Amino acid sequence: MSYILLFIGMLFTQKTMAITLYLMDFDNTIVEHREEYKGGFDTPHKLYLVERRTDVILPDYEEYEPIIELSSWDFERVKDKLSKGPGFPGNTIPITLTDGRKFIPGIYEAREINSYETYEYFGKSFQGRNFLLEQQLAAEKNVKNNNTDWRGRFFSLFQAALNVKTNIVAILTMRNHSQEDFIEWSSHLLKRKLINRTPDHFISARSSSMDHYDLEGRPNVRKVNYAIEQFKELQKVPINEEEIKLDQDGRALKPLHTLIFADDNTATVDLFAEKMKALVARNSSKVKVIFLSADFHSNIRKKAYYEQTVIKANGSFRKAKLEELIGEPNITEKEKKKILSHLQVNYCQNKMR
Hints:
The protein is an alpha/beta fold and 353 residues long. The chain is built from 11 helices and 12 strands.
């Protein structure tokens, strides 16, 4: 049983108490590094010059650095053009990187561990550095210089969720930084008053503690299976049956538990939508399920779901209302309007689909 489940069990001491549980991805959801959205949260990647093969013609091989570091933007541009290893060069047409350097992607390769050390290694135990905090500080520094924004599409929702003390907010990510690294990162945001409390949990889908959610090690499957377990656990939390009334989706009105799942990865969101709609349709649910996609808007328009989607009791989809994303906030109307104003821009983009 996971720590979140134990936390829920300890929290629910009254039958009428409802909770909203947020499971939010990190990259391109809470923070943003995609070039198309002027994302400023850069996670550098290292690429390695492939070993020379006499039977393969490579241009001026000795003139190139053995190791080169690329920004997130540049890595996304060249990852499909890289070498597959010695004897398998990729695209050898030179390109210009965002910092002006000339680069030939086809003579460099990405290595499973080393190329992604600032992304999925345990920073503290690896080099005694907190790569996550370093990237945050660099992103903040470069915002004005590069006309970028490190905040992801659902950063405002992340802030709003943390404004409600009864919410459980967890970061569910493919990153594999240590707990200490994430705590230092969130403490920095707290110090800057960007959030008013730190998230309750930091969960890595790549961690060995998540192996039982998918033995093949697929992070997106682990994320979805973990979310399903949380849904089933919330179903067990008792509520006062005398106070139940049905809402427009055929579910119980307040007190009602809510599970909100947010991710940018198409495969992850698709899998969540498919598995969860079947699960919701089979259960007389005391849990409202909402999922949010931070994928490119052009991709979302092709889907049967929306950018912000509620799964109805019969398994069908509808657009989520702004108020449903906040949970059950014990805040004033003025504070509520301020939260909604931050979300309004993204919601309007969704309504244009």
